[in-house]
Amino acid sequence: RDPRFTSRFWESLQRALGTQLRLSSAYHPQTDGQTERTIQSLEDLLRACVLDQGGSWDSLLPLIEFTYNNSYHSSIGMAPYEALYGRRCRTPLCWCEPGDNVILGPEIVQQTTDKVRLIQERMRTAQSRQKSYADRRRKDLEFQEGDHVFLKVTPWTGVGRALKSRKLTPRFIGPFQILKRVGSVAYQIALPPNLLNLHDVFHISQLWKYIHDPSHVIELDHLEVKENLTVEATPVRVEDRMVKQLRGKEIPLVKVIWGGATPESATWELEEKMKASYPFLFASGNFEDEIFKRRGEL
Known about the structure:
alpha+beta, SH3_Tf2-1
């Protein structure tokens, strides 16, 4: 997704040349699976040959190349050699520099044939092992527009670098809403402001389905904030009553439970002031009996 390949100049140039651009998904090297699989197969073949035969790996490259080009590929239904030349390769090959006088005896032919057969067996084993790894985690997955998904966080992707992920960083973040489907295996999601510098289209392997849970939804309360950035609380009930004794004076107080948009809290207020401001708290008529009843319950 380099800007040099997504710019309008590059698109217009390729359109003029008659070339069709097929961009891969960001942070998903498996999109170019043919090249990645070829490299991995050749690495496994080289590793197996070095372990069995010893010596330097560069001397085994001709045999590995011959084995790979003459092995059956299920993707094309034939070996690459047959696809290129239209016929199967029937004899082993030996590479030599032009002008060298090399005599191929039965012993050399037999040795080359044995090594090629060994490489073919190792290649079938590697292909079987790689297929089992892929099938173990492969499953059909599909999302719809409006669904919510988690985004996978890995240190080597743009998401991990943007979050400066470490070993103890959560493996998934979100959930984020899917905006639309791009192709068959990629989706565009709505990213938060701290991730807006990333490409918003991700491969399906980077997403994890979010199962809706009503307990995860936080309902917003309607708060009326004053100009001085304070919130007015409303009294819920009167919890207790007391008389404060001063020198030649008694002050009746009530314990008021405040609630509403803020968590419940209790304060002692002047009874006369509360009766004038909130008469509904004392409208029952038997206000003192209710207080005595609450004291008995406590």
